[in-house]
Amino acid sequence: MQKRFIAAVDLGVSKISLSVSNIVDGVVEVVHYAEAESKGIRRGTIFNPKQVCEPLNKLIRDAEEALEINIHEVVTAFPRWKVMTKDVDQSVKRTDAESFISEEEVTGLKELALEKFQSGIKQENMIYGAVAQSYSTEDLFQAAESDVVGVTAAKFEGMYKVFYGAKKPIANIDKVMNELGIASRKYFLAEAVAETVLTSDEKEHGVALVEIGAGVTSVSVYHRGVLRFFDSFPFGGNSVTSDIHLECGIQEALAENIKLGFGSCMPDRLQSLGEKIIQIHDKRTGETQQLPVKYLAEIIGSRMREIANAALFLIGKSGYADSLRGGIVLTGGGAELLSASALFTDISGLPARVGFPHVSGISTDGCKDICTLAGVSQLALISICKDKDYINCAILKEEDVPAQPEPEPEPEPEPVDTVFDPVAEEPKEQPITPKTDPKSQKPKRISILKRLTAGLTEVTGSLFDENIGSKE
């Protein structure tokens, strides 16, 4: 039975989450999920590694105690903010033009393209990921990878979209993990999130995936089943919460709860809910504040329209705005707001829906909280690593060594008859006997000594007699 663990960490702006999945013979089950308030993270990147250590360390230690494991490695995601994109092409001349193109050749061509690109960028940048756009030969033009494998050709060319960013945010992630004494693996999640949320038909016909996080909103555009575009901007759900906090003069934590409980993006679609009024009681001053739900929706709607317009600008920048038959799919924590998809449809004229995670092959019965819009990144990390047998993030704690049985006492040696009275060791429990006169026991000991001395006298006397006789 093959058993391993995947520990995934999502370093979000509003919260840090940790999930632990148990994989037994290829069957994946999420056995632990927990969240903590985020510290030291802004716009999706770590700016204060020391502050991140405290909540993340508690999440890891609690998981170790609950599952009786030792976590030595975690998987996490590259930042979504300030990710740059560049088109790269690479071609090779094949030595045997009559042989079939293999999957190994396709992988090797991609590695050559990345090596060439890495040598040409600045030292402070690094590659986050790459997606093959098309392949070409003498007989094929812009073919998919599945179509080019098995083709004969003398020349083989590939087109790639490479995503790269600064090394500093990655160094800060490594600094946090080193402080906690664990290793980390990092992945670019654009494709994995799409696998978690989108259908194959949507990616084939063209779709824009808008992930609204707390501090970063990203846009991924798919066409003919391939990721064609990725970009982001540095505001999201936290900006909505901040607007409520500043406009209504209430605490930010309370503003977040009110947004999730009563928030809507379109005041005109509230119907009967628009007549409701939220009573906010301040325990410090004793005052009560009234907040109409319709006014709350106007505050939220203003910021969400700004987010929608920014996302539509990036969709237009991609060049595929007229090819999105699948419309727009919203995901992330910010998509939980009421009428969010209706707002995007109203502004763009494209069909929009909210994309909830639908990962196949992963059991989440024990951790339902991960199956939310905010848990999409966690499920994407698990889906990336579930088929990589070399990833094992934890080991079971050593079982207590069973107590060794006490050795059986050695049998006492049997007493040996001697001419001396055995008085060295006496039995532990002496039977109670009537006292006797100690003088009565003396004769016995003296008689023994007398017999010994008498025997010695006879021997020595005979020796003396022999010596005297010889002198005479």
Can you give a write-up of this model?
It is a single chain. The chain is an alpha+beta fold and 472 residues long. Helices cover 36% and strands 26% of the residues. It contains 12 helices and 20 strands. Strands 14-13-12-17-18 form a 5-stranded mixed beta sheet, with helices on both faces. Strands 1-2-3-19 form a 4-stranded mixed beta sheet, with helices on both faces. A hairpin with a 4-residue loop joins strand 12 (207-212) and strand 13. The protein is globular and about 85 Å long. Residues 416-453 and 459-472 have low confidence and may be disordered.
Helix content: 25-40%
Radius of gyration: 41 Å
What strand order characterises the main sheet?
A: 14-13-12-17-18
Q: Which spans have pLDDT < 50 for at least 5 consecutive residues? A: 416-453, 459-472
Q: What is the overall silhouette? A: globular
Strand content: 25-35%
Beginning-to-end CA distance, first to last residue: 103 Å
Structural class: alpha+beta
Average pLDDT: 85
- Total beta-strand segments: 20
Question: What is the overall number of helices?
Answer: 12
Give a quick account of the main beta sheet: strands, pairing sense, barrel closure. Answer: 5 strands, mixed
